[in-house]
Amino acid sequence: MSKIAFGVWDGVVHDPQAEAEGAETRLSALTNFDEFDEGNGIRAFFGDRGFFVFDENVSLVDALYHYMNKAAEQSCGACTPCRMGTVLVRDALDKMRRGLDSPLDFDDIEMLGEQMRQTSLCGLGQTCAVALLDVIRNYRDKVETEIAHHRPIRAQHGMAYMTAPCIEACPSKINVPRYIDYIRDGRPERSLGVLLQKYPMAATCGRVCVRYCEMACRRKFVDEAVGIKTLKRFVADKQKGPQALKFTRDMIRKPLDDSMKIAVIGAGPAGVSCAYHLLLHGYQVDVFEKSDQAGGMAQIGIPSYRLPKDTLAMETDIIVELGGRFLFGQQLGRDFSIDELFTRGYKAVFLGLGCQEGTALGIEGESVARDGYFSGIEFLLKVHDHVDGIERLDMKGEVVVVGGGNVAMDCLRSAVRLGADNVHVIYRRTREDMPADEEEIVAAGAEDIHFHTLTNPTRLITENGKVTGVELVRMEQTEPDESGRRSVRPIPGSEFTLPCDTFIAAIGQQVEDGTLVEGDGIAFDKWRCVSADKGLATSRPGVFAGGDCVTGPSTLIYAMAAGLKAARNIDDWVQLGTQRFFKRSRMRDLISDNRFLASDVVEAPVRNAYRVHNPELDPELRKHMFGEVEQTICEKEAYAEAQRCMRCYRIYSVVTQHAIPEGAS
């Protein structure tokens, strides 16, 4: 990496001499800064916490102009310091870089910058002047020298990027503050538009998303994170049907000719998302699905009390409404091969296979259990068929579920609804270590499920193949290792037996059709997942893959993000024969790799206002039905919740040696 010439970060002035003598500083630990794109070195970087320069010949005036121009463009206009300050500073810097007399000098600019920093109402205004002030207060001689002769400054290459902690945390990079702004402005149809630009399953995601955005929300430092998922559901439910279809149809590019066909294998969230974006790009898309319904794991793996199937169907049907086709009952390896798809004229193939095969525990007695034994996915499929009226499933007695993820929680809560007398969850670590969504764990507890943490199964007890009990052992935590993580180990002599009529192993899944896919020339990795590069291209040219079959069992939002990324790269491969460089993705990598988004408290005082929660059915009522537990908030509640967003926007910019190639976001 190039050495930093000068800069300021978090108020600390970079000292090249101290670094040369071995002193460790925040800026000396930068990573991934060698080049922005191939052969295009980074000359300078500006952000919400300061700036640093690699090339002493960089024009700070021109760089600050582009940074403040982005701030002025993105200012919401709600407060005067940001609305007027960004424009005044930008215009003054513009005059300076053109060699003209400016109405403001650097003292005036410093005063305006400080006013923005201290009195703006949102994160954009509070942080956009930080680098500006650092330059004026520490390197004023440099900027004064630049404008001393009143000559135009040569324009520099680079880009500016606006983001927020919630945006960066979202796998699909949804502009969360923007869709919340539209709710606050009384324009929920535009809010839905922000969501539909990224994926078609907004109402589904508004019910089952695991809320990475809320984990990153800075409002949590004041009281509680903004109910981003709750607001997403409100928008999607309010604008569902014709409004969503109208918006997506307006996004379709000019349809390509009939020969531009793409095959998508798997109608789960990844496949539906990929098909959706390919249709918006103008391709003809056929989705091959081995079952008779679209939705994949969202269809069979998420019970109706969390995700009503009519809601899911309404959103997957958008594929047909946009001109795509679902070809149900079509299984890879049985009805067609990848070779055949290319022979039929498909230009590319996307593998959106799910992980629909359960993983065994590997304990004694498991291999002979035939009656009363299920994998988590197998059980949820039977629950799905029961709710759909295909095959009745009744439960009684003692039910034991092993696992601590969302699949385990779904199994537990479904067993309660099917009539089990008692339902137990076995987890080898502590409750705090459970990977399931906290809301799901709390809901399970409210439905009288018995938690046995720091407990592990060692033997399954059967009689003539019928499960009758499970032998368990108590576990204890070890001392923390170097990373601070505690492991667990069995406590000798602590074994005990729990009566059990139904045993469900909900500990993981794997790709069901792996052998068939390998036969078509697709490489797998050591975890038995499809091997794909950063652009989701597989070992076979023209074949891309994404979702659970690449990452292993993951979340709906990750699968939909993979579908979007794959569609973008498939379009590049078909049209250009290669993948374009995406400058916004590169900026995201810089921000992520260097942890530029600080986990800080808010800069301005905010009045406490605790979040709105979705109304829920009473636990005693919902335990006996598969009707949806959570309900949608009302318009008044949505407006109140939207007011809690602090718009924690941040701006980052780079100055580069050469022009940055154009690509999509």
Structure commentary:
It holds the Pfam family Fer4_20. One of its GO terms (molecular function) is 4 iron, 4 sulfur cluster binding. It comes from Aliiruegeria lutimaris. Residues 61-106 form the NADH-ubiquinone oxidoreductase 51kDa subunit iron-sulphur binding domain. Helices cover 38% and strands 17% of the residues. With 665 residues, it is of the alpha/beta class. The strands form five sheets. Strands 1, 2, 3, 4, 5, 6 and 23 form a seven-stranded antiparallel β-sheet that branches. A five-stranded parallel β-sheet has the order 9-8-7-10-22. A hairpin with a 2-residue loop joins strand 3 and strand 4 (40-47).
Please outline the helices and strands:
Layout: E1 6-9, E2 12-13, H1 16-20, E3 35-37, E4 40-47, E5 50-53, H2 60-74, H3 80-97, H4 106-119, H5 123-127, H6 130-138, H7 140-147, E6 157-163, H8 165-169, H9 176-184, H10 188-196, H11 202-208, H12 212-216, H13 228-238, H14 242-251, E7 261-265, H15 269-280, E8 284-289, H16 297-300, H17 309-316, H18 318-321, E9 325-328, H19 338-343, E10 346-351, E11 357-358, E12 373-375, H20 376-387, E13 398-402, H21 406-417, E14 422-427, H22 438-446, E15 450-453, E16 455-463, E17 466-477, E18 488-490, E19 496-499, E20 502-505, E21 509-510, H23 514-518, E22 543-545, H24 548-551, H25 556-576, H26 583-593, H27 619-622, H28 635-642, E23 650-656
Parallel strand pairs: 7-8, 7-10, 8-9, 10-22, 12-20, 13-14, 13-20, 14-15
Antiparallel strand pairs: 1-2, 1-5, 3-4, 4-5, 4-23, 6-23, 11-21, 16-17, 17-18, 17-19
